[in-house]
């Protein structure tokens, strides 16, 4: 079996990047590192705009096909918009298309065959911990996607959020801790599934711009506390790059902000449900929630796609802390394998 990167190294077809930005930078850097040549860059209609990306003139897909009708296209951005995903599928009908998997945060190591072999024991252990056959299917499909870049693996294991919330079976008396509350969208999603009744909500968001939006968007919600700090394994400080939107991350450079652990935020108080979507710090957050997870066994909704190792590190940590947990894995419609989450009860 060839992984995507070795396939690209051997292909005779011209390789085009589809999209520009951070994802394209990471993918182009990896291609260069492996000695793989890129022929050009194309963008969706309306995003061409006479631009240059890394020395390549950005053209339209139709322009690229006029020159190279038999090409290989690499999707270099993420989207959950149905129209965008449909367009990617249409491109795949007329040319070879892949979505290379690169880490959202962290180093530039890719999930290739060598990586999979190196972590085969951990991957196997995590797979065997999963609570149902569908979770195991999602796990296998996500791994095969990461190795091959073939989008059909993701399309074959998609489920809607409603199914995941059925697993969580949230009630109208939950004590909800939202880590990475962004602008309040997941608080509002929680309210949508549980109604207006809940015991309490604690929403944590470190980015100041996002926090202002969170405050505005949740001002009518009762029994809610907003906290403007980062999340980590321990209480202290952390460097944080405040980029606004969903791109703010813990960083080697940025500004120094306060951080708290789950256990220090709750200080022994009960929580029944925790959502963690904190740009690669999920494992640290779990390590800082040991007392809470052991004492109260809250239901968990944890992002599994920011780092390569999240797919096995997160379930292994959870089972070590509380062996009674049942761990499910679901992938919701998104290209690449973003919005892949562990649902834990």
Spans of 5+ residues with little confidence (pLDDT < 50)? Answer: none
Strand order of the largest sheet: 9-8-7-14-15-17-16
Mean pLDDT: 94
Query: Helical region count?
Result: 15
Largest sheet descriptor: 7 strands, mixed
Shape: globular
Beta fraction of the residues?
A: 15-25%
Give the proportion of residues in helices: 25-40%
Task: Give the class from helix and strand content and strand pairing.
Answer: alpha/beta
Question: If you compute it from the alpha carbons, what radius of gyration comes out, rounded to the nearest whole angstrom?
Answer: 21 Å
Distance between the termini: 36 Å
Beta strand count: 17
List the helices and strands and how they pair.
Blueprint: H1 4-10, E1 15-18, H2 22-33, E2 40-43, E3 52-53, E4 56-60, H3 61-67, E5 72-75, H4 82-94, E6 96-98, H5 113-118, H6 120-129, H7 133-148, H8 152-155, H9 161-168, E7 175-179, H10 185-194, E8 200-204, H11 208-217, E9 224-227, E10 230-231, E11 236-241, E12 249-250, E13 255-260, H12 262-266, E14 273-276, H13 282-287, H14 290-296, E15 299-303, H15 310-321, E16 327-331, E17 340-344
Parallel strand pairs: 1-2, 1-5, 2-4, 5-6, 7-8, 7-14, 8-9, 10-13, 14-15
Antiparallel strand pairs: 3-4, 11-12, 11-13, 15-17, 16-17
Helix pairs in contact: 6-15
